[in-house]
Amino acid sequence: MNKIELLQVIVLEMEKSLIIAQRSTQRAIESATDEETVPEHKYDTLALEASYLAHGQAMRAEECERELSQMKQLSIPTNMEHVALGCLVCLLDDSDECQWFFIAPCAGGLKVDYQQQQVMVVTLASPLGKAIKGKSIGDDVDYQVGQTNFSYQIDTII
Predict the structure, then answer these.
(1) What pLDDT is attached to residue 50?
(2) Residue 39 pLDDT > 80, yes or no?
(3) Which Pfam family is an annotated match for this chain, by its short name (predicted)?
C-alpha cells in the first residue's frame, strides 16, 4: 500500500467533513438570525437555542480545519521497524484476519476504503494507539475498551 496515496484519500474525506461542517454552520447562523426566530415573549428561547447551535457548529468547523491542517503537514516515514506516527499497520486478530490502521495525529475513528481494504485512522492517544506505540512486527497487542478486551498481533508495519 502506498501511504502517500492513502493520506490523500484520508485528507479528501476530511475535506468533505469540513464542507459539511461549514454548511451546517451557515444554516445554523441563518436560522439564528431569521426573522421567524425573533422571540414573541420573554419565554420564547428559539433564537437563543439557534445561536447556541450556530456557535457549536462554528466550533466544529474550526476543529475540522485544525485537524485538516495537521493531517496535511504529517510527514510520512519510510522503512519503519516500530509503530509510530505516519505508519500503516496490519494487525491480525484471533481469526488471523488482517485489519489495517493508519497512525495519525488526529481524525481517530475515521474509516476510509483504499485498495479494496478498509483502513481506520488511529491516534496515539487512543487505547489502541497507546497499546501499539513503539511495538514491532510479531509483537502482541492487548488493550481494553470498557468491558471488552482486544488482542492482536502486529503483522505488517509500512
Answers:
(1) 85
(2) no
(3) GreA_GreB
